[in-house]
Structures are given as C-alpha cells and as structure tokens.
Specification:
The chain has 481 residues and is mainly α. The protein is built from 17 helices and no strands.
Length: 481
C-alpha cells in the first residue's frame, strides 16, 4: 500500500494537470469585464486571503482525525460516538448559523469561527474523552459557520457595498473552488510530512492549523474592517447601534428574520417538486459521504499506507472530477448537469458496491478498497458542481438559505444514524479482521446511493421539458457556485 499510494498520487496529479490544460484550451476565460476591473480584483483578493486560510486550516484536520483518536487508544465504537457528536452539533448549529449572522453581524461571526476552530484544534492535545467531545462540538459549530458566514460576507459587500454586478459573483467562487482543491491536495502532503516524515505524531496537523486560523482572524479583524468602513447603507454597523439602544429588539429582529427564512424555505421545499427531489438526492448522497469520512481510515490504516498521501490522492481524484465536469459541460461536449448528476450518483453506488466485497471479514482487499475510494471521490468532483448548478436554477435566491437549512437537517441525521448503527454493530477493527460492521455499513451506503440514483433519474426526467434544469450557452462555470 505504501508504494501504491505514491504511484497513485503521481498519476492523479499528472492527470489533473493534463485535464486542467485541456479545460482551459476548450473554455474561454470567464467574466473578462470583471477580470479587467481593478477595484473588483482588489476586493476579491481581500476576501480570498481570509477565506482560503480558513479552508486550509479545515483541510489540515482531515487526514489524521481518526488516527489521532486511535493513537489515544480509544475503541472504534468510542470514536464513532465522537464523530456522531460532531455531526449532531452540525444539526443543532446549522439552523442557527443564519441567526448568528443576523444577530452579531457577518464579520463578527467570521471571527467567532476562527476562535471556535482554534479552541477545537487545541482540544486535540488532550487525551480526556470529555474534552475531545467538546472539541467535536466546537468543530461542528465551526463547520456550520465556515459554510455560511464567509460567503454571506462576500455576497453582501459585493452587491450592497461595492455595487458590483451579481453576474460577477460566480467568478470569485469558481476561483475559490479551484484553489480549494489545490489546498486540499497540499494539506494531505503537509499533514503527512508533519505526522510521519518528521515523526511529530497525528496531533501535529491540528496544532499547525492554529496559526492559519490566527492569520485568518487578523485579516478579518483588520482588513475587512476597512471594507466595512465603506458601508453607508443598512449594514452590520447598524446592528450594534440598535443593540445599544435596545438589545432585545436586535435579537428579536434577528430571530424573526431567521424564523421567516426557515418558514419560507420549508414552503418552497414542499411546494416545488424539483426542490424536494433535489433535497432528497443531496441528503442521501452527502450523508453517505460523512460515513465514508469515518470509515476510510480504519479500512486502509491496518495495511500501512501514509494517510496524508492517501488523503491527497482522494482530493486529487475529486479535483479531476471537478475538471471533468467543466469539460463535459463545455461547448464542445454539451452535457447537461442532470446527466452529470446521474453519472456521479451511479459511480458512487458502484464504489460502495465494490466496498461491500473488498471489506469481507477475514479477507480484506485494501487495493480494491483504495480504488473504490478514489472512484467515490471522482464522483464527488462531478456531483458538487452539478448539484450547485441545479440549486441555483430551482431555488429562488431569497429562499436559498432557508431551503439549504432544511436540506442539511436530514443529511446530518442520516449520517448520525449510520454511525450509531456502526457503533452498535462493530465488534472488531475497521479493516474487517474480526467484525462485519464495516462491510454491512458499506452495503447500507450502497442501498442509500441506489435510492439517490432513483431520485436523480426522476429529476433528470423532469428536466427534459424544464428549461430551468438545463444549461444554455457555451459553458457552465458561471452557474456553478
């Protein structure tokens, strides 16, 4: 597995480079007017500096989380509970992340992310189980904030402060997505260097993530405050003033906005069949991914691969899938996002079908499992831009936050139930030497992916006569994020 991991990494990296060059040759530059605007480029740089530091700190914690808990001699069932605590906190905090934005302001909520995630990293230095649970809860809060607050700050200032065209927003998030993939691959290499090459142990990547969070917080505190000084209309500056005269009124206003957003989101979800089916696909597909995040380490680690390099391989496979999406939906090939979504879910189903056989108790086949994991990440690279395009088409902008809140609720609940089922069934190591819990879990994931595939096909059938679900023009990137 050691040699296989390095060979796979080199191959996938070369594949990504070739695909990227091909993609840039076949697709024209995006938003040339935006790229030529110096004020927009400066504002984009201000945002990306902080956002990419936050993403870098998040990715550093991916490769060695399970390994750290095993290093502290916790049982797999205890580790499953730790993961469930993190997912449960996502369920609890995800709806309130929007309320925090309303109550405390976007910039302060970004600072709260930096603080909570730094504390989460420091808890990894403790071997106390309760402290680690607290860390997982803070990690769930931080994850919820990362997925909402930075984007909310950018969109608000892009439209309401700088008055840039809304059509320029996707160019920033497309650029962030490209950097995000590169950061994920690099994070695996750095984490592997710290934990294994320098022999600092699995806790080292978590400690190394803290300086990135501190730098992110410093940019938010200093550079972003200059951006907010330009704000002259209804903004976060008015919230503290309102809170000074009547703090209860501020909280009431934020609470009423949050409740109205959730109510509007639920109405949209129940009244539009397209939104409901898309939510079902997302809940089934992404809940299975949370289970995969827990299981990939115990499946491969007993066979001695460098976990950081394996993580980089997985992220490179996801990057390849994302580039293939851009190629497939380009003017040359003209695939529709509905086609790509069905293909991605089918590939994920086949991946978990392979895993039910490669993790047979007593006869594990790690190379086949590794190949199945790479196939799953390739499917993820295709899935996320496709589902983002469809969300942008069927969910109204003013109801998007509320609808996505309801999407995430069953997503995290399904993942929690899956990990709890694994906790109750596991009787041996994740590699399958003595227990069948892992194999049964992969079988359950395959069934969930089959249900997601049926929902995706149903959505594709609706899209045949629905222009909202079809991509027009020569390329898709402008609709991806």
């Amino acid at each position: 597995m050691l040699l296989t991991s390095y060979i796979a990494f080199i191959f996938l990296l070369a594949l990504c480079v070739c695909l990227e060059f091909t993609s840039r040759r076949l697709t024209p530059p995006q938003s040339p007017v935006a790229a030529a605007n110096p004020a927009f480029r400066r504002f984009q740089t201000v945002f990306l500096r902080a956002y990419l530091l936050a993403l870098w700190a998040d990715w550093l914690q991916g490769p060695y989380l399970y390994k750290l808990y095993r290093h502290y001699s916790f049982l797999e069932s205890q580790i499953a509970i730790l993961y469930v605590c993190g997912l449960a906190s996502c369920v609890l905090f995800a709806p309130f992340s929007g309320w925090l934005l309303q109550a405390f302001g976007r910039r302060r909520t970004c600072l709260l992310f930096c603080l909570s995630y730094s504390i989460c990293c420091f808890t990894k230095l403790s071997t106390d189980y309760f402290v680690l649970i607290v860390g997982r809860v803070l990690g769930g809060l931080s994850t919820s904030l990362l997925t909402t607050t930075f984007e909310a700050w950018y969109v608000h200032h892009h439209v309401n402060v700088h008055d840039f065209p809304k059509e320029w927003i996707p160019s920033t998030f497309s650029k962030a997505a490209v950097w995000n993939h590169g950061l994920a691959v690099g994070a695996g290499l750095v984490a592997n260097m710290l934990a294994e090459w320098l022999h600092l142990g699995p806790v080292a990547p978590f400690v190394f993530a803290v300086p990135s969070l501190v730098c992110c917080g410093w940019i938010v505190l200093t550079v972003w405050s200059k951006e907010e000084s330009k704000e002259g209309t209804e903004s976060e500056k008015q919230m503290p003033l309102l809170g000074t005269t009547n703090g209860g009124l501020t909280r009431l206003t934020a609470r009423s906005r949050f409740l109205r957003s959730c109510n509007d989101g639920l109405r949209c979800l129940m009244s539009d069949r397209r939104v409901f089916i898309l939510g079902a696909v997302q809940a089934l597909f992404e809940s299975v991914l949370y289970i995969f995040v827990f299981l990939w380490t115990p499946v491969l680690d007993p066979h001695g691969p460098p976990l950081g390099i394996v993580f980089s391989c997985l992220m490179a496979a996801s990057m390849a899938g994302s580039i293939l999406y851009r190629l497939g939906t380009s003017a040359r090939y003209r695939l529709q996002p509905g086609h790509v979504l069905c293909l991605a879910v089918l590939m994920a189903f086949f991946s978990f079908f392979m895993l039910t056989f490669s993790t047979t108790p007593g006869h594990p086949r790690p190379h086949e499992s590794f190949l199945a994991f790479l196939l799953l990440e390739l499917a993820c690279g295709l899935y996320f831009p496709a589902v983002s395009f469809l969300q942008g088409r069927v969910i109204p902008d003013e109801k998007r936050a509320g609808v996505l809140t309801w999407f995430r609720l069953p997503l995290h609940l399904l993942a929690c139930l899956g990990l709890l089922a694994l906790h109750g069934e596991v009787s041996g190591t994740g590699g399958g030497e003595s227990g069948s819990g892992t194999r049964h879990m992969f079988g359950g994931c395959a069934i969930m992916m089959l249900a997601a595939l049926m929902a995706a096909v149903s959505l594709f059938t609706l899209g045949r006569n629905d222009s909202d679900l079809r991509m027009e023009g020569t390329r898709a990137e402008g609709e991806m994020f």
